[in-house]
Amino acid sequence: MKKHILLASVIVLAVFMQRAVAQESTLLHFMNTTPQAMRSNPANIPDTVQMYFGVPFLANISVSATTPISWSDIFTKRNDSLFVKPGVANAVTSSSRVFAEFNYDIFTFGKRIDTVHFITVGLAAKGYGNIGVPQDAVELLVNGNSAFVNEPCIIDGSLLGQAFGELSFGYTYKINRNWQVGGRAKLLVGIYNAYSSSLKASLATDADTYNLLASSDILIKTAQIDSNPFDNVGASVDAGVYYKTPLKGLDVGVSLIDWGFIHWGSKVKYQESKNVNKPFSFEGFNDVGNIGDLMKNLVDTLKDQFSVRERDGESYTTKLKGRLFISASYDFQKYNKVGMLFRTDALQNFNNSALTIMYNRLVGDWFSVSVGNNFLFGQTYFNPSIAMNFKISTLQIYLAVENINATYIRDMKALSAQLGMTIVL
Known about the structure:
This protein is mostly beta strands. It has helices at 5-16, 71-74, 135-143, 291-305, and strands at residues 51-54, 60-66, 75-78, 81-84, 97-113, 117-132, 153-156, 158-174, 179-205, 212-224, 232-244, 250-264, 269-273, 280-282, 308-312, 316-319, 323-333, 336-345, 353-363, 367-376, 384-392, 395-402, 414-424. Helix content is 9%, strand content 54%. Helix 1 (5-16) runs antiparallel to helix 4 (291-305).
């Protein structure tokens, strides 16, 4: 990777999606007719399922992303040209962040043993990433450095992106008619990682010349799989409890998902500032409205001024995001259920949380549908969602589309989709 390209990508991408959180379907958590209900709580044994096989390469595919501002909030079109709206920087905060995720199941299997034991095996490819750039960086790119005459522009960003393979083994035990416990152990093999140990810059504008006096402290670590896949290895665990309360129809659950790490030791490279925190000056950014001019100005300035070199680096370790789920559901009538699910990412140095409310309707043993809304704390609160599960003989087909908060893609601030096929016996 050529120097400057990674840093440019960080800042440019943050202009398009400022803060986001990703998730698998929360509505499937309550659909106990499908094995996918176990993904967010391994103690939740699916109803009436004795054994299941995920259809190879189609067992589960999910993608997700969320942002507090949409494409139409950022750009306006005039005379066939795109322009950045002047007030876009006001729509972000110091914790603005990109966060996107995918999950692709290659193989899944589960089997009930007697009436109290349930085992699972899975093989999947997963990946997620987040990019954080503060409001000052967006203000600088959109309006130039004239806004920073009286106070400095402070950029303290972050970057984490990784893709990995996961081999999992799960076990669930039904203690009695009320209590179930479950867990999964996972072996991880890292495919690619990019991680910023430091992504900082300070820029002050001279009131007379409008030149910028700047300093930087940049260290971005990257690693990727090589001939020996076990150079990048890790482990994680899932654990959950499921309780059927004395109040008939009321069930509650608590689970911890993806608590673990990956150690990166293959093809490790460091992208770093040549002169850490050493001041330098340059003429700065002009006021730029057209997106084409903005991109050219940005890349040229990064190449000329923020000198970043690449070198071989030492191995390092990254944590997985570590999620906490707390759920409650109530069967208020035969085939009708309402539920609430709280989710938060617990291991990052930022906090992404959401609350889901839902209604589920079961039609015989062949069709189940859930509708609800996801409240994404600190971001968007109106995110309608729907999930469906069809059963044709032994084939189950499920689909979930969540966070549908606009009619047109250009106006969307969130989107999450998940689908798959499972043979259920």
